[in-house]
Amino acid sequence: MTAVEQRFREFKMPDVGEGLTEAEILKWFVAPGDTVTDGQVVCEVETAKAAVELPIPFDGVVHELRFDEGSTVDVGTPIISVDTDPGAGEAAPQAAPAEAAAEQPAAAEPEEKAGRQANLVGYGAAPASTKRRPRKPLPGLQRSAPAPSAGAAPQEPAPAPARPAPAPSSSPAPSPELNGSGRTARPLAKPPVRKLAKDLGIDLETVTPSGPDGIITREDVHAAAEAVQAARETPVAAPSTAVKAVAGRERRVPVKGVRKATAQAMVHSAFTAPHVTEFVTVDVTRTMKLVADLKQDPELSGLRVNPLLLVAKALLVAIRRNPDINATWDEDNQEIVYKDYVNLGIAAATPRGLIVPNIKDADAKTLPELASALGELVTTAREGKTTPAAMSGGTITITNVGVFGIDAGTPIINPGESAILAFGAVKLQPWVHKGEVKPRQVTTLALSFDHRLVDGELGSKVLADVAAVLERPKRLITWA
């Protein structure tokens, strides 16, 4: 490592979620010339799941911000350069790779072989090696070529045999991976997936794998087919990084961040899980009276008490009585995974789009604990501070469409889950109560479930149990 490399350290875009490949820089909190310390937040980025603040892992003075606000950056790409020894005076400018090679053709090669690029804090230096091991490609991640080390001559690539130009493709093809014989490796896919690709006219060489060990799945093929179809139907528009006005009457907004991730997840869920939705209309007058009473309870003082809290509790009771609803479908292994815990997701509308944070182990919480967790979840979501971890691992979800005055809907299941409950608006309506038509507070519940693992009987039992608890909330005690 050269002295310049030791002094000027780069902070790379980390993976702040679970397997995320990129993030958008929302805001810089520092500028060139600012002093930073280990652990200081230098920028805020938006991933496909949430907005996250990034702390820098070393001290120094900001030398350069590599990207502007609004830029989307791949994970692993340097985003800021820091001078860790500003007292040493102004460093000599780094020579371009070609210039460095011309000035020191003999000394550059040994230095490159003996050194390595600077590592992030927490990773030690690797032993020197004259031969690098081949890297296994990460599914869905396109790496940009690393910048050459300052002061080191670039390696000249060995001449490659001439190849005929590939036929044009309707979707961009990733760089081919070479096997040990120098020939292009065959894409990894199971026979049914290969047949599906053939039927849809998709070249597996152009498909980005998402399965373990780089295996192409059926979903990858369908995604590639949808991209090809969209490319055929959508006219080419001029690239844009901001809102653009068209003839003064239209606006174009780039799809990225949470909105992009939500769109992809909903399309994937809608076209892979066979959705079934059932509805029930229920008299919740007693539940609304209980909500009013609980608001006056000293045990719940200062907590968020509303109808959604009792809907959540009713769903947890229904899951305890019908535990098979709390499961997920494992397509790769052709298994149903039953969960012995409930991470209850709550769909939340935020300025960045729809997110679904979840309450961990909601089934083990008391009513005050559930109220506290629900209040914290909603507040954090509105402030845009929800972490990626809070949106991972959900098992079943509630979406409260009633706050918008909507009676019911057919909600799409959150990917990786088996069911989602929609809670409609509570309205005063004429209702037959004890043989007489009276004004009662009534709502509609809708339960969408994955028919691969939840049949009609199970789905109906769960929905009926939720309705029964909301109609007579004393069942929270008798069914506990």
TrEMBL record:
Residues covered by the Lipoyl-binding domain: 8-83
Superkingdom of this protein's organism: Bacteria
Region Disordered, annotated ranges: 75-192
Named cofactor requirement(s): (R)-lipoate
Similarity-based family: Belongs to the 2-oxoacid dehydrogenase family.
Biased composition annotated in UniProt, kind: Pro residues: 156-175
The organism of origin for this protein: Streptomyces endocoffeicus
Keyword field: Acyltransferase, Lipoyl, Transferase
PROSITE patterns (alphabetical): BIOTINYL_LIPOYL, LIPOYL, PSBD
Protein name, UniProt field: Dihydrolipoamide acetyltransferase component of pyruvate dehydrogenase complex
One Pfam family in the UniProt entry: E3_binding
Domain Peripheral subunit-binding (PSBD), residue spans: 188-225
EC number annotated for this UniProt entry: 2.3.1.-
